[in-house]
Amino acid sequence: MPRTLPAFPAVVLAVLGGALVARRDRFNRHARAAATVGGVALIAAAARGPLLEALRRTGTERRSARLHLSLVVAQPVEVVFAFVRDFENFPCIIGALRQVRDYGDGRSHWCASTPSGGTLEWDTVTTKYVPNRVIAWQSVPDSPVRMNGLIRFVPEESHTCLRLELDYQVRTGGLADALIALTTPTRGAELERDIRRLSTYLHTVRSTPAQVPLRS
Length: 216
Description:
Blueprint: H1 7-22, H2 29-46, H3 49-62, E1 65-73, H4 77-84, E2 97-102, E3 107-113, E4 119-130, E5 134-139, E6 145-156, E7 159-170, H5 175-181, H6 187-195, H7 198-207
Antiparallel strand pairs: 1-7, 2-3, 3-4, 4-5, 5-6, 6-7
Helix pairs in contact: 1-2, 2-5, 3-5
């Protein structure tokens, strides 16, 4: 029979592993990677069987998000829509997105960072497009990520009210990503924080157009 760790040492390993992962951002780039790998290894060593699977499942769920939010952007609706309609602009405000390739025919390819530093890629198709009114999109079948997005644009004098609905679900995930997700903010919290930066970002872009031009 495989040997199992006594309860007390297992708890200590789990706590130490969690502390390493949670504090990895305090280290330099090379030490951060070592802290992540070491922390995950300690947590994995402390857990066995059903507990390990439960941790993986819970961590993967924390990487998913369901958002329903409204925000007012201090820019005219034409400016906001011009930015949002081009998905290649999304990595400018959403930290976990590495790249979005918009093919210009309603199809897009998305690439995001995983908690352990890897990548996650999927494709989407635009399902609704009304200039200055609404954009909707969804992931293609059998994607590793199930994503449905809808943004409505409501003009309010010189401002724009955005009403966003987003369902983002990671369908598969490795153990390392799941364990790290347990010690970091939920994906929903990160996404909402990033999206609410849009007004500030657009103000900066329009103030310094030569530095970060909007795509037309």
